[in-house]
Amino acid sequence: MKKLVILGGGYGGLALIQELFSSYLPHDLEVVLIDRMPYQGLKTEYYALAAGTVADTELRVQFPEYDKLTIHYGEVTSIDLEHKRIHLHQEDPMEYDQLAIALGCTDQYHGVPGAAEYTCSLQSFSGARESYLRLNNLKPYSQVHIVGGGLSGIEVAADLRESRPDLNIAILDRGARVLSSFPNRLSAYIQRWFAENDVNILSGVSVSRVEPNMVYNIEQPIATDITVWTAGIQPVEVVQKLALPKDRSGRVMLNEWYQVPSHPEVYVIGDCASLPFVPSAQAAGAQAEQIGHVLKALWNEEKPKVHPLKLKGTLGSLGKRAGFGLMGKTSVIGRVPRLLKSGVLWKSKRHF
User: Which residues form the FAD/NAD(P)-binding domain (predicted)?
Assistant: First the structure.
């Protein structure tokens, strides 16, 4: 039997599984999914869990069941590419013939002292749960600072405002405007929403260090009760440790078939892969589907055909009743993009 091991049951890993099992698989193939949790966590919604606007049970999706799919619960500690072996915490190593790495990302603290120790994280289910406890145990009128004015920072600030109208909330952002990579129209709309809902935006802030009750803008102290970190991501530590060529963001460089050039039996998906897109669930899913096509072609001794990835756009929420989006070059704001995002979430929960 040949063994394909998939590391990570997130958007990329499950999209690959869905594509593979959508048609006939070789009779001598076993597919093994390794994940530390017994379900998929809908990571794009972890901001809502941390803010307290949804329960964690709403963000769980059960793994699919197929005859040739084995699900193994465990935590990957390292990958031995030379010997085709996966090392797991307090378990025997698992060997593979082909490997798909879809382990996702973790926070990028940019070397800021105290950031890892003294800020809340949204990058894991357990981290979002802990953030929820800390944020929702705050006393009324406490001060919350959210570092980063990107999509995650905006969404957690908006949902926290709905969940805790008694808190003082501020976003600390390095740029001149939030969501700086998006059109001015979207940024202006978001800033108006925050002004109307009493969320402060402090622009031009360069966080130099974090202490238990203080954030520093270079040398200027900013008193806080809790700091939430949404100022960047990087591949998980297991991928960071791989001695492979990587791009400036630490993501693994791949060939046209999404294989590691020096180890073509290894594929890398999503946040760990060097793709021409900002890391997202949508990009991971689209890439994983193509890897499914590549694997099937190679199993049939055919040359794979890969087309450039195309994404549908980006949607964001401002609480339960407002949102924003970018579809190609078209900006959309208000109720409609929020409804669209709810529809995408509904579909994600029922994917299998």
Answer: 3-285
